[in-house]
Amino acid sequence: MYQLTTLKNGLRVATEFLPGVESVAVTVTCGVGARYESAKDNGISHLLEHMAFKGTRTRSARDIAEAFDDIGGQINAYTSMELTVYYAKVLKEDIRLACDVLGDILQNSIFDEKELMREKDVIIQEIAMHFDTPDDLIMDYFDDAAFPGQPLGRSILSTEENVASHTRDDLIRYMDTHYRTPRIVLSAAGAVDHETFVKLAEEYFALPGREAGPGFDIAKYHGGDQRVERDLEQLHLIFGLPAPSMHVPDYYTLQLYASILGGGMSSRLFQEVREKRGLAYSVYSMGSSYEDCGLLTVHAATSPDKAGELSDVLAEQIAAMGTEVSDIELKRAKNQQRAELLMAREGPYAVSAWIGRHLIMFNEYRQVKDITARINAVTKQDIARIGQDIARGKLTVAALGDVSGVHSSDELHTRLKAS
Fold first, then answer.
1. Which of 16, 37, 49, 272 is flagged as catalytic?
2. Sorting pLDDT into bands at 50, 70 and 90, what band is 419?
3. Which of 202, 247, 316, 351 has the most beta carbons within 10 angstroms of its beta carbon?
4. Is 316 a catalytic residue?
5. Which of 204, 235, 252 corresponds to the end of one domain?
6. pLDDT of residue 411
7. Do 263 and 329 belong together in one domain?
8. Domain for residue 218, yes or no?
9. Do 137 and 93 share a structural domain?
10. Number of domains comprising the chain
């Protein structure tokens, strides 16, 4: 059901037909995100994504919005550290319109000065909202401590000052530098015919075939503390440690590790922190992998008087992952991963985005059978091995709220090394 064609200009065009659906998702995945930015450019990837829908040479911002409302479709975009993604969800008979508009915004956006000023104000409001949301804000403090002075340590949203400083010329320069066909994948999933879609790609995505622009600097994990005192009802806490990148076999081991540690209601963290001790309403762990590095993070929030006990328990549970996991835990984690993969395939957008992300990141589309085989190959010994490696790393601690009760990094390091 999956097919891939590379156009003469270097654009990769991929489709996957999904039987039994009446819609199609079209996705443009650009292999450039916030970590490609200099300190001066910080925030420009996100601003550019916002401005894509603010008018082209032939369509106003209202025209774009009405075109999709008229057919009951959706168009949107998002920015991550390594990707910028534009997508449309439409009924199968409207795939031409989806390609037309997405191709138009990529090639013909005018970045009108009045629209630019207005959208800067919108993003500045988004930044203010971000600062009012402790769950989001603490991630900025954590990233800054883990990767100080580096793109991975800066916020995708950037600062009010930086956003206000970006000009129309900056947007044009950045887009011209990075939006090049070796770094772009056009994908579709759902009720789509591959040959028809390739013809639409040739018609609406006549992008110039040029070599990719400069890449990003290799990340240097630093680790450390970022504790910010703020008048909040809860203390928000993140622990983080270096972990495998997406380009090593242990990428899938990390996902299973994170699932066992804090991936669900039966996970070690949920059972110990919430069910047994009542220390937090929400606690979870996450494995995040980039091109050249990765992180294992644990997130929780508690009342200030419980901060010391919570921080100790988190460190002890991470340390315990370096000993042994049970057969039941590993089987459960594998079943969770498989279920997530299969459930994601029930929606055209998830599959279309999955194709684009895989082709950009791995230079191949890893289908369920292949991913499941990699997951099933992970052993208990593999989990224990990366558990030991993770626990040996330098700890990053981010705390927001009444931080006085959080134990020192030295104490937490001692508990991590206890196993």
1. 49
2. low
3. 351
4. no
5. 204
6. 85
7. yes
8. no
9. yes
10. 2
